[in-house]
Fold DUF1007 family protein.
Amino acid sequence: MRKLLTLILSSLIATSLAAHPHIFVDTGLELITSDAGEMTHVRVTWEYDEFYSLLITEDMGLDGDGDGLLTEAELDRLSGFDMNWIEGFNGDLVARLGETEIPLSDPQEVTASFAEGRITTTHLRAFEEPIPAGETLVMKAYDPTYYTAYELSRPVRVEGSGTCDVRRKAPKLDNELRELQQQLATLDAEMDPEDVGLPDIGAQMAGSVHVTCAAS
């Protein structure tokens, strides 16, 4: 059975690497506020696509009986598999106030779960400085190279006291963006889009979240 799975995976890999992106992640955000209405932290949820989840569980030797369930020991091993960040990596998450980028802490409170063939992980990050009430925070989840596609398809909410306005904005699907998508589809799997004149392509493809909290 394992040999058959290896053959299937090899075939799927050859097919999936025909174009960008290669990994798909349903993403959710939870902004955490203080009693004064300041945004202090963001909890990030990543739910990986079934194919990538299968690759990870197979590579780590998890779910050996193939029942789609992981033991507590296996979940402990899985937890943090996507947190081995190199120095300078921003976690594929950018937060801005106007034109100013807001630094975020390293990930904390890491969790992992597995259900219906998909891995879901969460981690918490603190804003270097709390976002004052009344200011609009703009967040984008994206990989600049577009190797990984982050879709803000999971809940985006605020936890804490006070009233906050949360708005999602999809990327504007104009002729320029359609042309970029067509160019991406023709790229060799191992080619970096920036090498062919498509810098920061992930940012252009990404939607954004705009959050403003009133003072308590």
